[in-house]
Design goal:
The chain has one domain (about 5-115): Multidrug-efflux Transporter Regulator, Chain: A, Domain 2, CATH 1.10.1660.10. With about 120 residues, it is mainly α. It is built from six helices and two strands. A hairpin with a 5-residue loop joins strand 1 (about 40) and strand 2. It has a two-stranded antiparallel sheet. The radius of gyration is 17 Å and the shape is globular. It binds a DNA duplex (9 and 8 nucleotides) through helix 3.
DNA sequence: ATTCTAACA
DNA sequence: TGTTAGTA
C-alpha cells in the first residue's frame, strides 16, 4: 500500500468533525457503522476516530441514498468489496498467478449474472 | 464542551 | 431517524 493510501486510512477526526464534513447527524454516522459501512478506530476513552477514507465513504453513501438506493442495497455493495478483500487475505500465501485467476473467475460469474447487479438502476 | 450507549411519549 | 438521559 502506498504512503498516500496509508495516510488516507489514518483515523484522525472525531465524530464532530465528520458531522461538519458530511452534514450527517451523529446518529446516522453511528448507525452506518452498525451496517458495517465503516469501521472507525477507538481512542482509549472509547471515542470513535475516522479517516479521510471514512469521510469519503460517508459522502458516497449520501449519494447512493439520494439516488434512491435502500440501506440494504448499499450494505450489499460494500459487502462484496469486503468479501474480495477477505479472499485476498486468505490467499495471501498463493502465487500472484493464482490470485489473478480467482479474480478472473469472479468477474466471469458477475458478467453471467448480467443485469441483476445493483449498479444499474 | 464532546462523545458514548441505550432506550422510547 | 430523532431525541433525551446519564456518563466518561
Amino acid at each position: 500500500m502506498s504512503e498516500k493510501e496509508l495516510r488516507k486510512s489514518m483515523a484522525v477526526f472525531p465524530i464532530g468533525t465528520v458531522m461538519k464534513l458530511t452534514d450527517l447527524t451523529a446518529r446516522q454516522i453511528r448507525y452506518y457503522e452498525t451496517k458495517d459501512l465503516v469501521y472507525p478506530e477507538r481512542t482509549e476513552g472509547n471515542q470513535r476516530m475516522y479517516s479521510l477514507n471514512d469521510v469519503d465513504r460517508f459522502l458516497e453513501i449520501k449519494d447512493w441514498l439520494q439516488a434512491g438506493y435502500s440501506m440494504v442495497e448499499i450494505q450489499e455493495m460494500y459487502q462484496e468489496e469486503q468479501t474480495e478483500e477477505v479472499i485476498h487475505w486468505e490467499n495471501h500465501d498463493l502465487s500472484d498467478h493464482d490470485v489473478r485467476r480467482l479474480f478472473y473467475d469472479e468477474l466471469l460469474s458477475e458478467s453471467r449474472l448480467g443485469q441483476g447487479n445493483p449498479f444499474q438502476r
